Amino acid sequence: MEIKQTAIAGTVESSDIMITLVPNETQGIEISLDSSVEKQFGKQIRKVIQDTLALLKIESVKVVAVDKGALDCTIQARTIAAAYRASGEESYDWKEISTWSV
């Protein structure tokens, strides 16, 4: 999947995460994380984002994540939603996506 435009999913409410995806002019994935629980869970949050992007076959993107204590399933859902918005793809198979586990 190719990221064609900037897209956002999520909020900065408690127990949520706001994921912003921006096209990256260089190859690779860059993750910027702002989290109230970064010291305890920063590695796991980054891993869930990275793994979700890998499942979507995204190889080049800048990610800005503002976390307010989201669970892994919320992080994954917000990343998927932002990715589809940023790619411009209009159809997706939520049944297939729901079987993914990160």
From TrEMBL:
Residues bearing PTM O-(phosphoribosyl dephospho-coenzyme A)serine: S14
Keywords, sorted A to Z: Cytoplasm, Lyase, Phosphoprotein
GO cellular component: a single term: cytoplasm
Annotated localization: Cytoplasm
Molecular function GO terms recorded: lyase activity
Coiled-coil zones: none
Family annotation (NCBIfam families): citD, PRK13253.1
Family note: Belongs to the CitD family.
Assembly, per entry: Oligomer with a subunit composition of (alpha,beta,gamma)6.
Function: Covalent carrier of the coenzyme of citrate lyase.
Protein name: Citrate lyase acyl carrier protein
Gene: citD
